[in-house]
Specification:
Organism: Halolamina salina
Keywords: Membrane, Transmembrane, Transmembrane helix
Pfam families: DUF456
Distance between the termini: 15 Å
Number of strands: 0
Low-confidence stretches: none
Strand content: under 5%
Protein name: DUF456 domain-containing protein
Order of helices and strands: HHHHHH
Radius of gyration: 19 Å
Helix content: over 70%
InterPro entries: DUF456 (IPR007403)
Largest sheet: none
Shape: elongated
C-alpha cells in the first residue's frame, strides 16, 4: 500500500518526466520537489547520500533544460542574446503552433538575427540556426533521460529496496 506522501512524490516525479517534453515547464524542479517531499515528509527510507545524488541530477536537469540550446548555439558562434531571444520566440509560438512552433520559432529567430549581423553570410546564419535547433532538441532528450533516471532511481532505491 502506498501512503499519501509516496503518492505525491511519485506523482511529482512522473509529472517531471511528462513535463520534460513540454517546453517551458521546469521538469527538474518537479523532480526535485518529488524527492524532497519524500525526504522531508515520508518515512526515513532515503539516506542523505541518496538525497544528495538526486539533488545533483536534479540541478543538472535544470541547467540542461534552461541552457542546453543556448549553449549549443553559442558554441557554433551565435550570440547569447540571439539564442535567448530565439528561446523566447519558440516558447511564444508553442502556444500558437504547438511543438512545431518551438522549432520554427527557434530556427527562424536565430536565422533572422544572425543574417542581420554584418559579418554573417547566409550559410553561417543557416548553420547557426540549425545547430541551435539541434541543440534544443538534444537538450530536450537529455532532460527527458535525466528526469526518467530520477523516477527510476526513486522507484528502485526508495520504493523497492
Amino acid at each position: 500500500m502506498i501512503d499519501a506522501v509516496t503518492a505525491v512524490a511519485l506523482a511529482l516525479l512522473v509529472g517531471a518526466v511528462v513535463a520534460s517534453v513540454v517546453p517551458g515547464v521546469p521538469s527538474g524542479l518537479l523532480a526535485l520537489a518529488g524527492v524532497y517531499v519524500e525526504y522531508v515528509f515520508g518515512p526515513s527510507r532515503m539516506g542523505i547520500w541518496l538525497l544528495l545524488s538526486f539533488t545533483v541530477v536534479g540541478i543538472l536537469t535544470i541547467v540542461v533544460d534552461l541552457f542546453g540550446g543556448a549553449i549549443t548555439g553559442r558554441a557554433k558562434g551565435a550570440r547569447t542574446t540571439t539564442t535567448l531571444l530565439a528561446a523566447a520566440a519558440g516558447l511564444v509560438l508553442f502556444f500558437v503552433f504547438g511543438p512545431l512552433g518551438v522549432l520554427l520559432g527557434l530556427f527562424g529567430t536565430v536565422f533572422a538575427l544572425e543574417i542581420r549581423r554584418a559579418d554573417r553570410e547566409f550559410e553561417q546564419a543557416w548553420e547557426n540556426a540549425l545547430w541551435a535547433t539541434v541543440g534544443m532538441l538534444a537538450s530536450g532528450v537529455a532532460v527527458f533521460l535525466l528526469a526518467a533516471s530520477m523516477l527510476a532511481g526513486y522507484v528502485v532505491f526508495v520504493l523497492w529496496l
